[in-house]
Each structure stands twice: as C-alpha cells, then as structure tokens.
Amino acid sequence: MARVTYIGSCEHKSFPSFAGRPCLRADASKCDPHHADQDELTGWLRQAIREGRTSAHWEGDFPRYAWHKAEEVPYEARLVNRGLGQYKGYPLHPDEWSEIFDKKISGNDNG
C-alpha cells in the first residue's frame, strides 16, 4: 500500500491546506484543522487498508472506501484516482460508524 496517498479535497476544508484554497460545500462534512498534516492522514489511510477497514469493492489495486477512527471521530476516505491510489477523506457522524462496520462484517457493502 506504499502507493496509497491522501490528497484531500478543498470541498471539506474551511481553512487553507495542502489540498488548496478552502471551498467548503454547504452539504460537505467539515474537516478539523488540527488534523491537517498530509503525512499523518496518509498514515491513517494506509493503516486502515492494512487492517482491513475497507469496502469490499475495489477499483483496480485500491479499495473504494477505507475507514479510520481518531480521537473518537470516525473518518471515511474515498478513492478519487484509482490509477494513482489517491484519496480524499471526511469526518462522519458518529452514528454512521457502526453502520459501516455492520456492512463490512456482513459482507453487504453497497458503497
């Protein structure tokens, strides 16, 4: 999973970041500026994939989704470039966490 990288998305940022100028969508989850280090976020993503916290659906060499929890906040990463293994990510509402893992455990992954 050395090719996997977190590139982020300005659509989830309300602050300038490595992903570019902020352009937070009204319907998008807002990222925490305390977790704005690209290397840290790439590490979270790689750990999630290594530990199998991924969707059953893969696109080429990469899972479509991966999940990580940091400081009790659940995050979802979504593949945005399957040729390069690049992802964006966003926080989830805590209620969505168990639903995701219920689907993963049962093998009923529609995402």
Structure, explained:
There is one protein chain. This protein is an alpha+beta fold and 111 residues long. The protein has one domain (5-106). Helices cover 23% and strands 24% of the residues. Strands 1-6-5-4 form a four-stranded mixed beta sheet, with helices on both faces.
Q: How big is the Rg?
A: 13 Å
Global geometry: globular
Strand order of the largest sheet: 1-6-5-4
Number of helices: 2
* Order of helix and strand elements from N to C terminus: EHEEEEEH
Q: Beta-strand percentage?
A: 15-25%
Structural class: alpha+beta
Brief account:
The chain is of the alpha+beta class.
Topology:
Elements: E1 5-6, H1 38-50, E2 58-59, E3 62-63, E4 65-70, E5 73-81, E6 86-91, H2 94-106
Parallel strand pairs: 1-6
Antiparallel strand pairs: 2-3, 4-5, 5-6
List keywords for this structure.
single chain, 111 residues, alpha+beta, four-stranded mixed sheet, two-stranded antiparallel ribbon, 2 helices, globular, disordered C terminus
